[in-house]
Amino acid sequence: MINPFFILVGSVIFIIYGGLNYYIGLRGWQALFSFVPFLVPKVYWPVFWLLSLSYLFSRFSQKFLPKILYEGMTLVGAYWLAFMWYFLLVITVLDLLRLIDHFLRLVPVEIKRSLNPVLGFIVFILVVGIVSYGAWNARHPRVNHYDLSIPKQAGSLKQLHVVMVSDIHLGTIVHNDHLTKMVNTVNQLKPDLVLFAGDVFDENIESSNKQQVSDNFRKLSAPYGVFAVLGNHEYIGGNAEEAIKYLGDAGVKVLRDSSQEIAGSFYLMGRDDRSSERVNRVKRKSLTTLMEGVDRSLPIILMDHQPSQLEEPAEQGVDLQLSGHTHAGQMFPIQFITHRIFEDDWGYLRKGNFQLIVSSGYGTWGPPIRVGNTPEIVDITIKFKQ
């Protein structure tokens, strides 16, 4: 039986989403498309609603649609979410300026009427340019390098070369070709250790070409191995167990509230994502419990998908934490929100002997675009005290 609460929440979301899109569509018709010859409302509005509702429709109709139609509508709808976001920002700003002018009467009415189609065209080109740049930017990740030192001895190991990747989001939108580029770049860096800090998969693992993806993961080469932790999206999609098995079969060991001593030189620890409690009603182990039996004189590297509650690893003697999740906001100006939510939403942070690196991620979630940040592969050289 469907929970009435979910029906209520879903209805409210749909009404808000529909209202925002109607606002965008109405302003678009008034400012630009009503001036296009032969374009009538009977054509404009059905096309507009088909675009704006395609993402929601595909998500709720996945089980009933052919795969090619589902993935096509999801992709079109995901791009529309980006257009919707930036149209909403620009149109809202313009309407606020119009409201101010309504009281101050700075611009004559005749001029405003003649400017409508010109202004509408400028807004349209501006938003298309932003989304186009964001789509290009999302497909061109960079390698960001960090040089760190940990004031501990690591056996005979003088330094460690780690490559960390987070938030690939393989699935309906991010495909195997993006993974191929990542694997090739990682192998060119010749790391000692490869780490995936969560959200390797999006909600729908089935949308990936499993065999090709598996073959790609097997190509990764690192003397100390390839490890991963789960992110919130593996749990949201209900695919956590499948993701663990799939990655394991592909040569990637998933650390789920567990630790592993490597080469007698350092510890690698992986925490289960905090979303497991919300989705599976299973609370992850405390870091205090995970640290039991760990030789704290050796360097301790922790993977935790979400960079939250940083006082815990700092107090427990973790030397380096690697996280992702934030996407550095992904679409401007969302980074101002992630700045407020997380103590560190991207880059490097040090608190005493505790060090943290948060990746902006390699892939995308939702709209396959990035504006105001760049996808990345994190390349880390760690030097140990001798």
What does this structure look like?
There is one protein chain. Helices cover 46% and strands 17% of the residues. It has 386 residues and is α/β, with parallel strands linked by helices. It has two domains: 4-137, no CATH class; 142-384, Purple Acid Phosphatase, chain A, domain 2 (4-Layer Sandwich), CATH 3.60.21. The strands form two sheets. It has a six-stranded mixed sheet with strand order 1-12-2-3-4-5, covered by helices on one side. Helix 1 (4-31) packs antiparallel against helix 2 and helix 1 (4-31) packs across helix 3 (67-104). The chain is elongated and about 80 Å long.
| CATH architecture assignment name of the largest domain | 4-Layer Sandwich
CATH topology of the largest domain: Purple Acid Phosphatase, chain A, domain 2
- Helix content class: 40-55%
As a whole number of angstroms, the C-alpha radius of gyration is 24 Å
Strand order of the largest sheet: 1-12-2-3-4-5
Tell me the strand percentage band: 15-25%
Q: Quickly give the structural class.
A: alpha/beta
Please tell me the overall pLDDT.
Answer: 91
**Largest sheet geometry:** 6 strands, mixed
Number of domains: 2
**Count of DSSP E strands?**
12
Query: Unreliable segments (pLDDT under 50, ≥5 consecutive)?
Result: none
